[in-house]
Fold this protein.
Amino acid sequence: MLTAINKVSAAMNLTSRTLRYWEKAGLFTSIRDPGSGWRLYDEQALQCIRLTDLLRRLDVSIPDIGTIIATGSVDELCRVLQKQLNKLTRMDKDIKKRHETISGLIRSLNRHTAISLSSLEDLLVPLDLSRTKYDLSRSKEDVNMESMEVRNSQFRFVQKYPMRTAAFSCVGVEPEDEAMQMVLNWVEQNNLLGTMHLFGFNTEPYPSEHHPAYGFGFCASVPEGAAIPEPLYEWKLPGGIYAQLDVPEDTNPAIGWHKVRELLAEGEWEYDRARHPGLEEHVRKADLNGYRVSILVPVKKKGP
């Protein structure tokens, strides 16, 4: 029995984009319905999807999940879970240490009605504010994973200038690939690949349980004098300040969007929806094998 991607997406509360990303990572395979073009999954693929969903909720990396699925080994599963447990233990110790430090600082400050910078420094010195020292015996993989998590938990602000682009958008159950390929084909034909900036963006309609087809588009920066033929169209991206978040290769960009919104809610900047809904910048890798993705959210200072 085969199950269509929209049924799996609705039943498991996963986006079709997430399912396609996991499949592209080699965790399972699908069968194409020759009539509709939709992806269909057999029972083995569904088992892999359920296992992947469970392990991703535990923050297990895509490469580790791939190894578990490929080997089918209980020992490998235990090794990966133990690695996650060790990481959580280190995080818990670090959080506890910071909690104790902040609590001690507040107790010290509560004993003063006014304080100078020099006095503040005197208060801080006795407290244990040293940076966490990493155990050099830990594997390079562990350190790299933690570094990636730090980068993924913070965004930076960047200035973008107005840009003329050639864009194409479409609606379907998997519109991203079609939209991207249409733009890239035209860019390559006009020898603009080396100078372009490439962006993806959401368009209406948005996916729902009963209507899985949704809109997505891509655009590439082009010179002012370049003619843009149909079905492509001209789209001028506004400049301004953007919150940029780099998305690790084994992470669905949708997670990056949620993370940026969470971080913006905590600070003095907010989503500037009047400019546009936001972009996914695709930067070609040095080896020309695929693209790195960054989330770009237009922002402005929060009002009073």
